[in-house]
Amino acid sequence: MKYRKFAGLDWQGSALGFGCMRFPVIDGDTSRINEKPAAEMLLHAIDQGVNYIDTAYPYHGGTSESFVGKTLEGGYRDKVKLATKLPSWKIEKSEDFDLYLNEQLDRLRTDQIDFYLLHSLNEKLWKAIDELDVLSWVEKAKADGRIKNIGFSFHDEHPVFKSIVDAYDNWDFCLIQHNFMDVDYQAGKKGLLYAADKGMGVVIMEPLRGGRLIDPPQPVQEIWDRSAVKRSAAEWSLQWLWNQPEVSLVLSGMSTMQQVEENIASASRSGIGSLTSADLELVDQAKATYEGFQLIPCTSCGYCIPCPEGVDIPRILKIYNDGIMYDKVETAKNDYKMWVPEENKGNLCIVCGECEEKCPQDIPISDWMAKIHQEYIGKKLIVNSPLLSGSGGICGSNNTIRNKGYLMLVASDLNGTLTTGSPILAVARWVKKNQPESYPAGFVLGLFASYLQVKLGMEKIDTWGDINMRRVLKLVSKPTQEILDQIMDSVVEDELWLKKRDTAVDILNEYHQAGAKIIIISAAYEPAVQKFAAKIGLENTYGIGTELEFTESGLELVKRLTTREVKLEKIHALVGDQQIDIALGDTFADIPLLEEAAEAIAVFPDKTLRATALDRGWRIID
Known about the structure:
Layout: E1 3-5, E2 12-14, E3 16-19, E4 25-26, E5 29-33, H1 35-47, E6 52-54, H2 59-62, H3 64-71, E7 81-86, H4 95-108, E8 113-121, H5 123-131, H6 134-143, E9 147-154, H7 158-166, E10 173-177, H8 188-197, E11 201-205, H9 218-225, H10 233-242, E12 249-253, H11 257-268, H12 277-292, H13 313-325, H14 329-339, H15 354-358, H16 365-377, E13 409-412, H17 423-434, H18 443-455, H19 461-474, H20 481-496, H21 502-513, E14 517-525, H22 526-536, E15 541-546, E16 548-551, E17 554-557, H23 565-575, E18 580-585, H24 591-596, E19 597-603, H25 607-616, E20 619-621
Parallel strand pairs: 3-6, 3-12, 6-7, 7-8, 8-9, 9-10, 10-11, 11-12, 13-14, 13-18, 14-15, 18-19, 19-20
Antiparallel strand pairs: 1-2, 4-5, 16-17
Helix pairs in contact: 1-11, 3-4, 7-8, 9-12, 13-14, 13-16, 17-19, 17-20, 20-22
């Protein structure tokens, strides 16, 4: 084991600290630690030189501290420094400080906490416990010997971190999230340097970003593979931290003996300044490659906040981007549910547009808040629309079908207008689940990376769609009509209908129930468009898309995509010269269709369509 100077203390900490929040558990219940293997892991790490053990009041449903205290009996307590944390969010009155500390001392079967932290401080929590004079209490607890060293763990922005550091001259250390992907996140690199310059020890948590950096996508793995020194993705992340002199030690929450062994071996190879300039360049390339997978071009500049409704826009966008970047969608869903409070979730967005006016990246933030909340929670964000307001609804006195004297014709685009789902992604997921041997690693991440070129104006959306609609079909092994039906059922049920825009679909439903003919026209695969249209109704509904055919090489698109003017050609081939009464679309590519209609409706329009709609007085649904 390698040891490192811990700020001004007459003690050196092991490069690796043991985080006691991810022990093996029984039957998936995090409150039931599987004590035999967990104890073997912890004691083996200590035997191999780990001398810093970190736990906290809530870890493992409140059982971690008691387990650690019991395991360290028999002489092991004297071999380590023990760290635990005050549950700051539970403090309601000043007497609670002693209440929780004394309980923790009992749980840990010790008379003194070597390193005590005020847990999970942010601006709100710090203000609350500061008003209860927490620092005076800290001084008393240090004086009576219950606490040896005092610090805090942190989860907020750098200015808040700096203000907490500056509030007390006797901080011994802090615990911050840091890794090569998070140099500008929360306290970040600036916080690391600031605390170290103040003489504080800096302990690092989340060195592997909660495991997200362990199993990288293929483009990132190829970067690591270029190094003459062979390291796992996890070791690259750890060595990057240990390379920095300001880092006192790095915590890792380990769940298996293999992880313990691998991390101890990595720590034995660690050292300040041990990475070469070529190594650091590879880390920068890996970071840039990960960031290239970022779907939403958010830079966390913070111009969009504060939101009048309290929506935590940067945090929500970051969680969503992380799910895509690291291919950890389920983890992102859990992060959204657990770590974004109800008063800050995306469903509170009222589409006021204030954030979008301030966003330097022109991100359609309101759209993303609706999409993310719907995907992660399963509840759709329904925004009141003037089209649906009033006693008459859409079929009221101003929009009557019955007075037309003929079957009214309503035409709508699909993708972006009636749904936020992606047929391309849906096909890829079907292949990954049902034909995994045909699914290339990193395929979806590659899609997102190439889509960035569209967002940056380097490639036309039609070209991107044509290429990738064909690419994903090539993944389907030995396609038959039965397999095609299964795929398209999945595309609609598990993606397009699941992510439908309720407001726009309700419009089609109401017109259909009143007797109108409905045509859904889209560049998407025609079988999927037809199945989506059938969800509106089986009579007088038509789905027109891009046709498919079976060839010797597999599934192919028959002709060019059904987009722009091609949509009009196909509609008129079906209905002749009949007037389009109502048309719905969401992008500039739908303008030719909307221009043909007696009444045009722009649904969550892009910038070009929005400007056109405002200029021509078309209805806009946001």
